[in-house]
Each structure stands twice: as structure tokens, then as C-alpha cells.
Amino acid sequence: YNLWSLDDAEALKPYFDKGGQVAVIGAGFISLQAAWAALYRGLNVRVLELLPRIMPKVVDDRCAQILTRQMKAMGVDIRVGTITENIERTAEGSFILHLKGGEAVGADFIVVGAGVRPNIDFLRGTDIKVEQGIVVNNQMETSIHGIYAAGDVAQVPSVLEAKSVVHALWPTAVKSGRIAGTNMAGERALYAGSLNMNVTQMFDLTVASMGDFIETDGMETWSEDDTDNQYFKILLRNGIPVGAVSAGSSERASTLGLLQPLISEKIHVGAQPGRLKSIVAQNLVYHHQAYRKQG
How far is 68 from 77, CA to CA, in rounded Å? Predict the structure, then answer.
């Protein structure tokens, strides 16, 4: 089973019987949500990941290490650096997965969540420019005047990168769709840029990342890390926050939301962790005040 739609999730229900064996191919957010749901329902869970660690594109090494330790402690069999060469169906209806190196493992059912790509094949051979997705400008207009694209198929301008990106995220789809609709209706609106952000709760942890969360040359990092599965890291470039990653409590993940405008608006905080905390605290106070007014 792939997990592309609500119908896909509904189709999995009959298999979620306590004691069953599920193999999850891929270790991104969607795959691990499926693994968490299966474990929660009492199934035996095995995760197979091609790359050397879980969540290779959505968290840093330390966050992946914390989540891996938590998953193993809860009974998940994690196999990283593992290639599934072929899948055999038995006469009883179960499966045997043949892994590179000669090993074979069994499963009552398989969930595949190994990446996503835009459904743009119908545009191949047309004059609309296509790279990883449909290339658009900051008005969501494609390479053909008067034709617009938005959502997961669109390769949109980025807050942090010089090149456009495909994030396949709900907030990006909402914002880019609003810009496309406004311009299609005859008004003028510009897209400020996409910023990747992922947050999920699984295996009794809240895991989140935003922006550039992998440290590279020239970056400064401020981090908090303890032995109780609590981890938070902010990354800066030239005194400007560019990304963050966290694992642990939901409060830590909520801080990423408060950092988002600082990253998007390129607010300079300098080499002063205290100043950044002060700005975040001010944003938090403003958020709660606004919430109380609405309430």
C-alpha cells in the first residue's frame, strides 16, 4: 500500500490486527507515522530505509539518533542502509521481502512511503517549463503567459535558496494557491517565498524541522541537548536565523513557529542567543494576547 489518500489509509484498516507483522519501506514523516500507528495498535513493525539513517531529508543526525533510540526502545526493528530487491507473495497471501545481501524478511502487509514527486507527466513535450516541478515566477505564472500553477506540482520561489523548490507541504500549497488565484482574478500579488516546515508527533516525541536545519560551513548553531530526549537547535548565517530542528516536547516544536517570521523576514539577531530568546518571547506574548482577544 502507498499512502497517498484517505482511501489508502482506509484500505489498511483490516490489516491492523494485534500481533500482525508490517514492513514499512522508507523512513520519512509519512512512513514513520504509519509505523507509529501500527505499533500503537499492537503490530510488530519493521522499518526498511535505503539511506544510512531514518528521516534523512527532514531532520539532522542528532534528531534522527534520538528518534531511532526511542523507536527501538518501543520495539521497532529498524534496518537502515537496506535495499529491498524484490517482494514475493506467498500462497497464504503474506509477503517475503528479499533484501540485498541475501536476507529475507516476512510481512503480513507492506506500506511504501519512499518519497513523493509531482504528477506532471502530462506536461512533458509542451512549452510549459518543467524541472522538478512546474516552474513558476513570484506570481505563480508558468513560462506561458496567463497559465498559472500552485500547490505540490509547482516549483516555487524559496525564502532561503536562490533557486526555486518543490516542498510538497500544505502551508506552501495554501499560500501559493492564494497568490495564483489573486493574479488569475486580475489583481496583483507576489509570493514571498516558500519555507519548509515539518512537525509531527510519533513514538511519544514531537519532532520538527524548519528551513536550513543541516549545519554547513559558515553557520553558527545554538543548541540545547540533554539525555531525556529533549533536543533543540537553531542555525544562523551572518547573524540571521535560517533554520531549526527539535525533538522532545511539543513546546520545543512550537518555538519553530515563532521563529518562522524571523527567518522569512531575515531578522538580524547577531551573535546573541539572549536577544533571540527575547524576540521569541515577545512573539509568544503577542500570540497569546491575540488569542485571548479572539476568544
Answer: 10
Burial classification of residue 231, based on how many CB atoms lie within 10 Å of its CB (0-12 exposed, 13-18 middle, 19 or more buried):
buried
State the DSSP H helix or E strand holding residue 279, giving kind and residue range, or none if neither: helix 273-294
Report the distance separating Cα 68 and Cα 230, nearest Å: 14
pTM above 0.70, yes or no: yes
Average pLDDT, the chain: 87
Query: Which secondary-structure segment (H or E) carries 12?
Result: helix 6-12
List the one residue out of 123, 236, 118, 106 whose CA is nearest residue 167.
118
As to burial, measured by CB atoms within 10 angstroms (0-12 exposed, 13-18 middle, 19+ buried), residue 264 is middle
C-alpha–C-alpha distance, residues 280 and 283, integer Å: 5
CA 264/CA 261 separation, integer angstroms: 5
32, three cell numbers: 514513520
Q: Distance between CA atoms of 128 and 147, rounded to whole angstroms?
A: 9
Gyration radius (Cα) of the chain, Å: 21
Sequence-ordered strand ranges (E) for the chain? 21-25, 44-48, 77-79, 84-89, 95-99, 104-107, 109-112, 134-135, 154-155, 197-202, 205-211, 219-225, 231-237, 240-248
Res. 31: pLDDT tops 70? yes
In terms of Cα–Cα distance, which of 276, 179, 288 is closest to 223?
276
Question: Among candidates 99, 96, 95, 94, which has minimal Cα distance to 84?
Answer: 99
Strands 44-48 and 77-79: parallel
| 129, 231, 254 from 61: Cα distances, Å | 35, 12, 21
Please state, in angstroms and as integers, the Cα–Cα distance from residue 49 to each residue in 77, 117, 145, following that order.
Answer: 11, 18, 42
pLDDT, mean of residues 194-222? 88
